Amino acid sequence: MMQQDAPDDFVIATGVQVTVREFLVLAAKELGIILRWEGKGVDEVGIIANASSQFVKGALSSGQVIVRVDPRYFRPTEVATLLGDPTKAREKLGWFPKTTVDELAREMVLSDLEIAKRDALVKTHGYKVFDSYEW
Predict the structure, then answer these.
(1) Alpha-carbon gap, residue 85 to 12, rounded angstroms
(2) 123: Cβ contacts below 8 Å, ≥ 6 apart
(3) Residue 49: which residues within 8 A CB-CB, separation 6 or more?
(4) Contact 49, 131 (CB under 8 A)
(5) Taken in order 45, 66, 115, 22, is the CA torsion positive or negative?
């Protein structure tokens, strides 16, 4: 993009659309968690159906709700669909996505897991960890 003769805007995207629920299922799977869904709309929750990985043993258990809808994050004018179209980047730059949605979920989970491990280590040595997570 930076080597183009004239400045231009490009959408860099997979061109693949998944729901938030589908992405959560992929992310949970990376941690060895199988989710089941109950409820509808803002009352829908994601519940652990099975947690088999070393990352969650002892911390999470079957039947525990780990996903809730939070209306604070609704957009004032919600759109029906969001999908990035990388056609222009492909045509003008020869760019193609190399990362799948599954790989993206894996990378994000592993990154968050490393941060959680670091924070846990820092806490065990008596230092304060600044909690940037919203609860």
Answers:
(1) 8
(2) 129
(3) 34, 35, 36, 62
(4) no
(5) negative
Tokens of 104: 């993206």
The CA–CA distances, whole Å, from 128 to 59, 111, 122, 123 equal 21, 21, 7, 6
pTM of structure: 0.80
β-partners of residue 36 are 47
How far apart, in whole angstroms, are the C-alpha atoms of residue 76 and residue 62? 35
3-state class (DSSP) for residue 117: helix
Which DSSP category does 46 fall into?
A: E
Residue 12 CA: distances (Å) to CA of 22, 45, 90:
21, 32, 9
Structure confidence by residue, pLDDT tens digits, 39-85: 998 999 999 998 887 766 677 888 999 999 998 888 788 788 889 99
For 18-24, the CB contacts below 8 A with 24+ separation are 18/101, 21/46, 23/101, 23/105, 24/67
